Structures are given as structure tokens and as C-alpha cells.
């Protein structure tokens, strides 16, 4: 009727203002115009059961003293706020609204306000304690405060899920942080332990003095630097190494300790094989000396750690290509002078001896008692003591 004759339907009651009861049940009505009941001040019974109404779209206030609004067996899932306000505008002791037989919903958060309204004592819904709704499990249940509690849980579920996600994320981050800290601490402890072990092993090998550990240091220098080596290097270096290794045996050999009657290069190779570390007093005089450049050439083919004693400002352009590479990656102890007569070294010889033992320990090839992770098992000879005088 409504779909076919909507204009006629809208003015149906215009000239029937004295009607008290109207029965529009089972007319396939989906909605009623807002002003349909205007002027029906005597209306008491409005029977709309068995239609397809889903919301209250008409003005109830204009019905005067309406007592019964029968909306049973329609298509109402949940009354909107506007629909509830239309009913509440006519709340009186005589008004009764019938919702029996409607497919009421209590499955989603949007149903909460409607169910809460249904349970209010002031709501004019008759038989409300026997009404049922379809829950989120597609089951019918009687509408009670338990229904309201379930809807609260449904409404809070997204927040709870966010909390769970946040807490899970935080827990995961914290766990990963703890793992990183533990692993990092463990790796540092392993590295420290193996470092201490290598130092102890280096000290033990140098104390015994066999094979490649017969001498701690093989020292290169040119003839022009003999004075500074004799006055400042040899005795101080020997004494510092003796204190560090607690031994009184000879620990330093030099390029000057060549036995007469033997091949110079053969003697140098022999001393290199018997020494744990190669050191060189690097000066402009050394770089200009073809003899010194020839003497140090065998060191190019050794994998022993290297240490430079740099005498003042040198002309780096005089370095041969392989010696320049070695110079860049090796530790240096720099000697300087202010008056060009006396060279001084500001660091202590004990520090130099500690550096030498550490370089020798780093070069020891052995399997650690505690295995280090592969990415940490490197043998970098980065400068650990670089003193500018």
C-alpha cells in the first residue's frame, strides 16, 4: 500500500482526526511518513504488527494520548537513538510499546545503547523481560543484564586487542633487548676471556723462548739512528719487557746483531723467524738509506705484527708502496723534538711493552677454549698506542 499509493497514504488521516484506533497490521509497510499522525490527538491504539518496519520514522508526539503502539513482528533489529527519542518523548504511565517477535540484535557494539535502553525501568516496552535477541554466536538469548555485560566485552574487545598487541610488542621488544644484552654481554665476556687467555699464552711462550718466541722483538734501524737506539731504546725496551714478562733473558734483537761471515739477508730472515714482533725506527734517514730498505724487505713476506717508532716528522713520500700500506695499518709510537737535538717519548716504556705483548697475543693462532661468534673473530691490527710527541 505504501509503495503504490504513497501520496494518498501520507494524507490518509488528514480528515480523520477523531480516530482512536487504527489497524495497519500486515500491510507490508516499511516506513511511515513523519507527519502521518499529525492532528490525531485522540489516537490511543496504533496497531502496526506484521509489517517490515525497522525504525520509528513517524512523530509519536502528535498522537495525543496514545496508549498502545504495537510494533510486534516487524523487522526491528535495534532502535536508533532517534527512534528511542521519539518513544521517550511520549513516556507516560499509559503508554505501552510492543516489540515482541522482532529479530532484535545483541551481536555488535552498536547494539549496546539499545539493549541498555530496553533494560531501563522507565522504558515503556511491555514484556521486555521476556524479549530475546540474536547474539554474536547467532543464538537467541533472553535480554538481561548479562546481555549488556557481553556487549560491554564486545565493545571493549578492540581496545583489549590493542592492549594485547601493545603488550605483546613491548614484551617482544623487551625480550629481544634482553637477548641482545645477554648475547652482547656473553660475547664481550668471551672476547675478554679469550683476550686474557691469549695474553697469558703469549707471556708463557715468551718466557719459554722457543721457536718464533725466542725474541719478543726484532728491531730495524739505520746507522744514522744508532745513537738514539743505544741511548734511549734498547735498554729501556729490554727492561720494560723483562718487567712485563718476569724474565731476565734477552728479548730484543736488532738488525745490527748480524754475525760476520754470514749472508746479511739470511741472518735477517733467521732473526725474523725467531722473533714474535717486528719493530722499526722509522726516520727520514731510514727512508733515504737503500741499505736499510734492502734489509727490511724480508719483513714484507712475514705475517708477524708490526710496530713503528716514528722519529719526528718523516717524509711519507719516501715510503715504498708495501711499507706505506704497513705503516697505515700498524701501531705507531711517535718521537718528537722541540729543539731538533733531543728526541723524547711522552708515553712510558711500560705502555710500549704492554702494547707489544698485546700485539703478539693477537697474532697467536689457536682455537679458543670458548668459541667466539664468527663475526667477532677478527684479527685487526688497528693502532692501539699512537702517541704524538
UniProtKB/TrEMBL annotation:
Q: Where is the composition biased (Basic and acidic residues)?
A: 374-383
How the protein sits in the membrane? Single-pass membrane protein
Tagged with keyword Electron transport: no
Q: Which GO terms describe its molecular function?
A: signaling receptor activity
- Renumbered residue ranges of the record's region Disordered: 370-389
Please provide, in alphabetical order, the Gene Ontology terms of the cellular component aspect for this entry: plasma membrane
Keyword Electron transport tagged: no
Among the GO biological process terms of this entry, one is: signal transduction
Q: Which Pfam families match?
A: LRR_8 (PF13855)
List residues of the TIR domain.
Answer: 213-356
Q: Which SMART domains match?
A: LRR_TYP (SM00369)
Protein name (Swiss-Prot/TrEMBL): TIR domain-containing protein
Stated family: Belongs to the Toll-like receptor family.
Q: Upper lineage ranks?
A: Eukaryota, Metazoa, Spiralia, Lophotrochozoa, Mollusca
Q: Give the organism the record lists.
A: Dreissena polymorpha
Task: Give the UniProt keywords, A-Z.
Answer: Glycoprotein, Leucine-rich repeat, Membrane, Receptor, Repeat, Signal, Transmembrane, Transmembrane helix
**PANTHER family under this entry?**
PROTEIN TOLL-RELATED, TOLL-LIKE RECEPTOR
> Where's it found, cell-wise?
Membrane
Amino acid at each position: 500500500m505504501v509503495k503504490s499509493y504513497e501520496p494518498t497514504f501520507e494524507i490518509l488521516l488528514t480528515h480523520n482526526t477523531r480516530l482512536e484506533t487504527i489497524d495497519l497490521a500486515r500491510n507490508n509497510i516499511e516506513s511511515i511518513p513523519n507527519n502521518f499522525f499529525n492532528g490525531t490527538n485522540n489516537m490511543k491504539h496504533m496497531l502496526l504488527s506484521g509489517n517490515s518496519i525497522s525504525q520509528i520514522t513517524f512523530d509519536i508526539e502528535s498522537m495525543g494520548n496514545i496508549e498502545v503502539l504495537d510494533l510486534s513482528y516487524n523487522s526491528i533489529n535495534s532502535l536508533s537513538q532517534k527512534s528511542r527519542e521519539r518513544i521517550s518523548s511520549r513516556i507516560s504511565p499509559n503508554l505501552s510499546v510492543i516489540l515482541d517477535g522482532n529479530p532484535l540484535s545483541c551481536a555488535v557494539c552498536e547494539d549496546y545503547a539499545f539493549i541498555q535502553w530496553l533494560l531501563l525501568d522507565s522504558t515503556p516496552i511491555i514484556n521486555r523481560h521476556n524479549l530475546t535477541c540474536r547474539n554474536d554466536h547467532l543464538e537467541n538469548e533472553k535480554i538481561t543484564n548479562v546481555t549488556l555485560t557481553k556487549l560491554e566485552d564486545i565493545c571493549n574487545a578492540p581496545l583489549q586487542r590493542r592492549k594485547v598487541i601493545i603488550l605483546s610488542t613491548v614484551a617482544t621488544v623487551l625480550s629481544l633487548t634482553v637477548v641482545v644484552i645477554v648475547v652482547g654481554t656473553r660475547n664481550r665476556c668471551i672476547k675478554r676471556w679469550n683476550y686474557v687467555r691469549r695474553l697469558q699464552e703469549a707471556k708463557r711462550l715468551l718466557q719459554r723462548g722457543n721457536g718464533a718466541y725466542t725474541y719478543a722483538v726484532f728491531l730495524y734501524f739505520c746507522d744514522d739512528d744508532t745513537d738514539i737506539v743505544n741511548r734511549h731504546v734498547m735498554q729501556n725496551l729490554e727492561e720494560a719487557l723483562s718487567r712485563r714478562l718476569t724474565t731476565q733473558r734477552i728479548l730484543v734483537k736488532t738488525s745490527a746483531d748480524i754475525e760476520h761471515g754470514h749472508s746479511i739477508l739470511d741472518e735477517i730472515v733467521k732473526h725474523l723467524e725467531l722473533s714474535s714482533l717486528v719493530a722499526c725506527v722509522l726516520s727520514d734517514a731510514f727512508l733515504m738509506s737503500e741499505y736499510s730498505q734492502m734489509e727490511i724487505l724480508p719483513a714484507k713476506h712475514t705475517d708477524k705484527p708490526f710496530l713503528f717508532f716514528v722519529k719526528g716528522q718523516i717524509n711519507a713520500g719516501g715510503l715504498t708502496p708495501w711499507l706505506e700500506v704497513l705503516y697505515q695499518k700498524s701501531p705507531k709510537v711517535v718521537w718528537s723534538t722541540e729543539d731538533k737535538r733531543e728526541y723524547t717519548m711522552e708515553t712510558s716504556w711500560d705502555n710500549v711493552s704492554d702494547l707489544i705483548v698485546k700485539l703478539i697475543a693477537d697474532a697467536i693462532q689457536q682455537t679458543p677454549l670458548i668459541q667466539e661468534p664468527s663475526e667477532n673473530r677478527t684479527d685487526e691490527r688497528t693502532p692501539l698506542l699512537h702517541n704524538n710527541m
